[in-house]
Amino acid sequence: MMPMPDADRFNPHREDLCPALRWKGQFILAEHDPSVPPSNDGLFWCMHTQTCIGPDGELAEPGNCCLKGRACHGTGTCETR
Predict the structure, then answer these.
(1) In a domain, 34, yes or no
(2) 19 within domain boundaries
């Protein structure tokens, strides 16, 4: 399986993104300036664990946190579905 390109892996504008995923860009209160390139710093964390690891032990990043099949997606719990 081919690794996901970073541009896709770190894209926070994915469909079905877990509402518990956080990144520092969410907390910058400034108008969008198209002349400023995105930082794409890759610093993400889970609201439930407050770390870069989700409740299921996997990385908290957009490429992983847009999968509704992930046990903790949107709930913060890891019950079997």
Answers:
(1) no
(2) no
The predicted-structure confidence for 23-76, as pLDDT tens digits, reads as follows: 988 887 788 788 987 766 678 999 999 999 999 999 999 999 998 888 899 888
DSSP state at residue 53: B
| The pLDDT value given to residue 81 | 46
The total number of structural domains that make up the chain: 1
3 state SS for 30-72:
CCCCCCCCCCCCCCEEECCCCCCECCCCCECCCCCCCCCCCCC
What is the rounded distance in angstroms from the CA atom of residue 17 to the CA atom of residue 29? 21
**Assigned domain for 26 exists:** no
- Interacting residues of 43 by C-beta distance below 8 A, sequence separation 6+: 23, 24, 52
